[in-house]
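REVIEWER CHECKLIST
Item 1: Sequence provided? yes
Item 2: Single chain? yes
Item 3: Sequence as submitted:
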Amino acid sequence: MNMEKKDIKSLTLPQLEEELAARGEKKFRAAQMYDWMHVKLARGFEEMTNLPGSLRERCKKEYFYTSLRAVNVQESKIDGTRKFLLELPDGNLVESVWMKYKHGNSVCISSQVGCRMGCRFCASTLDGLERNLLPSEMLDQVYAITLLTGERVSNVVVMGTGEPLDNYDNLMVFLRMLTDENGLHISQRNVTVSTCGLVPQMRRLAEEKLQITLALSLHAATDEKRRRIMPIADRYSVAELMEACRYYFERTGRRITLEYSLAEGVNDGDEDAAQLARLAKPLRCHVNLIPVNPVKECDFARAQAPRIRAFQNILEKNEINGTIRREMGRDIDGACGQLRRKRMSGQRDIGGNEAC
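Item 4: Structure as written out by the authors:
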């Protein structure tokens, strides 16, 4: 990636109009180019056939154009879920997942290369944080998968590798461009952003006047237990998190989702469920129960199915809407970060020439 060149795909339409106007181009050229990038999903300036050749050549010289390349695709034989390992312009790799539902196609994207949050059961964080993703790199995960599958994406979840709110400014540009009427125009109500609990950023997000869903990765209902599995709990207490959730709901009217990964013998007991119910009830939130994806470097085991159902029953008896997440693509590298780590390990072993 040539960082000296401006990343043209991360420019909003007003910014692109200003950029091209400064180079003597008419305003409608920006609209044409924006349409090529964010509606027609052109993979380079050369595809923009209604732009003058001189403008396309000039743009090639002056701007950087983000276009991600799939280096590995895994497809589930069970449900058709596809996991994509996408190469960024600088050679880094990120994972994205395409899931087909009756209500439409959903893509789960990454927001960072790696992660620095250190959650104990997550493969994404094992090698730490490499860097933040640019808005264009988040957008192009959706664009590349749309082109590769040949199907429209109707729902986007920012729940892959990385902590989205740790890349706040780029995330905000991405969200506004993704839902912009001049681009793919995905409804904000069809976008979910997950966080492990960065309280100041959660409160800041509440002020953005967006209608997205905020999902909090809680995973334990007490400070003591949460600190054992999520280092971020050393900075923000459960009480602070719940107050931030209440604030988000008050400011946006959007119901919070609590994500709760169930690990056998760690956080799947009856008392854990009762404590979670006490937290969730005042929020009138939805609870998403997630069987832990086993990661060989971590010592957490998936909770057993009868225990998960018993946990759900306790929530329901306390009038909490709790659903067990449907496991998509469980016959492929399911947990976030596993496919990337496998590829990186192979590259280290054979000098970076692993064939797909």
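Item 5: Key structural point noted by reviewer: Residues 135-149 form the longest helix (15 residues).
Item 6: Recommendation: ____
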